[in-house]
Amino acid sequence: MVVAQPPSRSPTRETGAAADVLRVANLGVRLDHVPILEDVSFHVRRGTTLAIVGPNGAGKTTLFRVLLGLVPHTGTVEWSGPVRVGYVPQHFVVTDVPITVRDFLGFKSEAGFEESLAAVGLEGGVLRKRLDILSGGEMQRVLIAWAVLDRPNVLLFDEPTATVDIGSEDMLYEALNRLEKESNITVLLITHDIHIASQYSDAVLALNRTVRFFGAPSRLSEPDLLMEIFGSGSGLAEHKHDFGSRGFR
User: pTM, whole model, 2 decimals?
Assistant: First the structure.
């Protein structure tokens, strides 16, 4: 395992987010006596983004389920202060259900729809649309709007762009970047995209049943480290994004 202290990427984060919002120590998960996660330890600073990478079956989604309190585990999961967690799943399938965006958001709250939609770059007119006619990018942004309706201070995203086209990916990450900056939200993000992990996040946690790496995202350019994380196969997508012109960290 390779462990390095994740650096803060801006002076404001050094002073304003020095405290950890989450500390996980010696975490273990077994399902039907099969080890899924073993001896997983890491921490997340408040107001930062942690990218979680690893091959399929590495235990990334299981980790999220632990953080959501859905899976029994050994070890400790410690949240600091009052925490409200929002979650955006990898898949959300809607077929032939006559429900509008307004109806869907209304299951969670009675107000604040326009504000939440604006936070993810959608206009109020989308409220009248049915869920089953939304594009992949629109659907994912509606799910993010749903997740932030009750003003969480931590957001968990499981492959948020897995079902959208490449042209919509930048809009989604712009929305996440804006939410994090304006609301000081802590983001935990599962991704297979090496460019997202290295250029969008403040720290990277690489899992393959246990921790293979925890540290600075800039290290993901090192071939030896990628071999340590993924073995001889390629585990990360290599989409190219123009982050520089969009103000990403």
Answer: 0.78
